[in-house]
Amino acid sequence: MKKNTGCGNGYGHGKKCPPLSSDVAKSKSLFTATEEFSSDSTEEIVILGDVLIQSLTEADFELPSYARAIKNIEKNVSLTQCKAIPVVGNPEYVKLFVEGVVHKNIQYVEDGYGYVKDYSIDIPFKAYDQVQLANEVQYPFDFEYSVKDNVLQRRQLAKDGMGADRCEFGSFTFEIYNQPIECKLIASAVNQWDMVHHFDNWGRFNKVTEKMDINLVIKLTQKQQDLELPPLPPMDNGGNGGEEAPASTTQQQETVYSRFRKIIGQ
Question: Do 213 and 181 fall into the same domain?
Fold first, then answer.
């Protein structure tokens, strides 16, 4: 039975992902087994790359009244979206989607005397591009995707031996929770050119066309850990007089990642 997920209570039409509500089944856990894997590595934030991305944006807007001259334009850049999507099969590249606004406070005068008026406006911009990284995106399980559909089904023969038993069946699914790529704006620069038009009889204008060269410096990071473990010491079965065992007996330590890859068949 479908339940209300909270639309109208801060979720639904907003940008925040709402939690799902479901019926709860009765269950019981019969057995638990735990295994600990040694790890000398540390988890740390790795800089994937410092990216300089450019957006060429043109905007037209109208002042609330006619202006004799624009005295000053203050600009502030902020991002509304910054998302890096890894390129399939190539962890050295990401597709970078950047959106934001240039907030402008325009100060102008209507005549040769009088007050300076303020007018604020937001000018949206977008910049999409493929970016090469200085450090690769990490997938600890060497497999970036999850298999959640019942594509791997287990069926057993029916009692009459004429087909599958439709009353008993199984499946195998798995989810891999990759560390997200974080995006942070650390610098911006706006180079613009203004063209005024739509003049009245006194030579005043109220329409402006702006051409902007927006340059952004964005830092891409991901939380990673060193997955390389030192090999196990060579095995000595006591038959070589205590001498070092051949290199062929050297074994690599098993990690929780390699064990899980065996479970999912990767």
Answer: yes
- For residue 168, the enclosing domain spans 146-175
Same domain, 109 and 198: yes
Q: Tell me: the pLDDT tens digits for 173-203?
A: 888 888 899 999 999 999 999 999 999 999 9
Say what the pTM is: 0.75
3-state secondary structure the chain: CCCCCCECCCECCCCCCCCCCCCCCCCCCCCCCCCCCCCCCCEEEEEEEEEEEEEEEEEEEEEEEEECEEEEEEEEEEEEEEEEEEECCEEEEEEEEEEEEEEEEEEEECCCCCCEEEEEEEEEEEEEEEEECCCCCCCCCCCCCCECCCCCEEEEECCCCCCEEEEEEEECCECCCCCCEEEEEEEEEEEEEEEEEEECCCCCEEEEEEEEEEEEEEEEEEEEECCCCCCCCCCCCCCCCCCCCCHHHCCCCCCHHHHHHHHHCC
